[in-house]
Design a protein that fits this description.
With about 150 residues, the chain is of the alpha+beta class. The protein has 2 helices and 7 strands. A hairpin with a 3-residue loop joins β2 (about 50-60) and β3.
């Protein structure tokens, strides 16, 4: 089941739980927060996002989030707490953002750096938004013939 958090909850109060609607269990169908579309008229910033969908979250502040409201190809990765000494942890949390075409591939690659496994799904994309999901061509490695 999808989880949602606000920007405030992720960045300021990570000890708080997800964005919760107390009537979520009144229906036998999944419910989702309201969603608006991003216009892509300018580059999105963290301050533009009200609600994030949680793609991965683990202890120590490590997480991957995607913009839900407004809905866009905008991802945020938060790095976690790191040991300064064996008994002492220090907050060296960094916030990384990925926006626009090719952002999905960059996020998947970066998540692997943190040993996170993200689910991937095939989705339907309207022709007007296809430019966001086309990957950039990667160079083909040379064939080695012995």
């Amino acid at each position: 089941m999808a989880q949602f958090k606000t920007t405030y909850t992720i960045l300021q109060r990570p000890d708080y739980d997800e964005l919760h609607n107390r009537n979520i269990y009144d229906s036998d169908r999944p419910t989702f927060p309201p969603q608006t579309q991003w216009t892509y008229d300018r580059e999105m910033q963290i301050e533009d996002v009200d609600i994030w969908e949680v793609l991965h979250e683990s202890s120590g502040g490590l997480g991957v989030y995607v913009s839900w409201s407004p809905y866009a190809e905008f991802y945020m990765i938060t790095t976690g707490w790191y040991p300064k000494r064996p008994e002492e942890y220090v907050n060296q949390r960094k916030i990384e953002t990925y926006y626009g075409p090719g952002a999905q591939q960059k996020v998947l690659k970066r998540a692997r750096d943190f040993n996170m496994v993200l689910e991937t799904h095939k989705i339907w994309v309207d022709d007007s938004e296809l430019w966001l999901y086309q990957s950039t061509p990667t160079p083909v490695p040379a064939k080695i013939i012995i």
